[in-house]
Amino acid sequence: MQKTESSHKTILKTTGVFGFTQILKMSISVIGAKFIAIFLGPVGIGIAGLLNNTISIVSSLTSFGIQVVSVREMSLAHAENDLGKFSKRFIVLERWSIAIGLFGGILTLCLSSVLSKLTFGSNEYQLWFVFLSINFILSSLTASRVAILQGMRMIRSIAVSNLVISILITIVTIPIYYFFRLKGIVSVILLSSAIALAVNLYFTRNVKILKLKITLQETIRCGKPLIKLGFLLSINVLFGQICTYIIKLYLNNSGTTAEILGFYEVSTIILLSYVGMIFNAMNTDYYPRLTAVSNDNVKIKALVNDQIEIALLIITPAITFLYLTAPILIRTLYSKDFLEVVLILKAALFAVIIRAIIWPLAYVILAKGENRLYFKQELLGDALNILLTIALYHFLGLIGIGLANLINFSIYGFYVYFILKNKFEFDFRKDTLRIMVVSCLIGLLNCLILFFVKDPNTYFLIGILLVLSCIYSYKELDKRVDIMAYLVKMKHKIKSK
């Protein structure tokens, strides 16, 4: 019982740290996104998203899953508590990261004309891709430093570094877009990557790495298994990026208004960034902790159930709040020109609750190093994403994009659970199941109210659901961590500092 309570507290603390950071980042983003929306408009934001997506595809093709593999290796090395092994693994990973970054940069340079034609239909933007070849080296070096922070579970450093990066990028972005508009997109991407690298170098400056003499042959020998391990992961990411790219191209050339791509991009930003604190915490802290116990199915079961409970209890009221305030939020963060994004969010916000259940499950297969299984499950999710999004958008418009999200996550979730249950003897605790049912019911009611109830009753009913959701989450969290005692403890810690 004490171990479970400790696990809940750890998850809550991590989520709290990232949640607080996310709120601060959102406050900063309100300023940045508002100006960017004014300076670029829906069309400009859509073009920037398409360009970023193209770069991501090339990165996925050339990275060999080094980002995920690095975190896993640093986590395992840190768990062994051997500075020599830790240093050796980092040096090998950093060298491979540089080589991979150079490979990505050279490939982009050589294919700049082709990439311009594929993305924008002409050679007009070839120079953009020439300059963006530098981005791959910056991103690869950043990934090796982020792997140290995540592998050592330096939660506060990660949270603060992310906040600093967000502030600096906002400060740089606004004047560039003000003076150069669309022509400033490449400069913003490059400066953002440079800022991320500089900040992460600063936050890892005190991490002790022994200066070991490792030959080129040894670097290649030690790195080969890691590259093989990451190869299927890179194909997964690549396929996912290609699917997103095809969706964006379809929306951009669907014969409807040019703003559709911008609406899709903004909905993605809201779903991944503004409600992403739970998923950021999973990626940063949960995955390394899961990796450390990956050989013990009993511990995995406990950790996964704990993570799902805390995730749902936090994210369900947050999603209900977004259902209530989405139009105001979009107007504030962007402009009234983006209000049609609400049509996507009607079902897509409910999908986030489903996602909070699925992601902890999906990470198990990755933590265990079952790359072939992980490849299959991600392939299913990506295939469903592209088929459902294009089909449902064709028949239902923007509402169909949100429904595609919901159906995709539901099917994908059942598939992943089936794998875990049969291969690793995983099942849900009764308490976890109860929270899952209540959270999904609240999400479903929010969704149905928006679809079938007319204003002003819509917001009155969602307001009632928000109150009920907050009360339920507080009571359930209090059972697990004794919230008042936890807050008092945190207050004493702050005072003592």
Walkthrough of the structure:
With 497 residues, the protein is mainly alpha-helical. It has one domain (2-496). 87% of the residues lie in helices and 0% in strands. The protein is built from 17 helices and no strands. The protein has helices at 2-63, 66-80, 83-110, 112-120, 126-151, 155-180, 185-203, 216-252, 260-274, 277-292, 297-333, 341-367, 371-396, 398-424, 430-452, 457-481, 483-496. It is globular, with a radius of gyration of 22 Å. The relative contact order is 0.11. The mean pLDDT is 83.
Protein topology:
Elements (H helix, E strand, L loop, with lengths): L1 H62 L2 H15 L2 H28 L1 H9 L5 H26 L3 H26 L4 H19 L12 H37 L7 H15 L2 H16 L4 H37 L7 H27 L3 H26 L1 H27 L5 H23 L4 H25 L1 H14 L1
Helix pairs in contact: 1-3, 1-6, 1-8, 1-9, 1-10, 1-11, 2-3, 2-5, 2-8, 2-10, 3-5, 3-8, 4-5, 5-7, 6-7, 8-13, 9-12, 10-11, 10-12, 11-12, 11-15, 11-16, 12-14, 12-15, 13-14, 15-16, 16-17
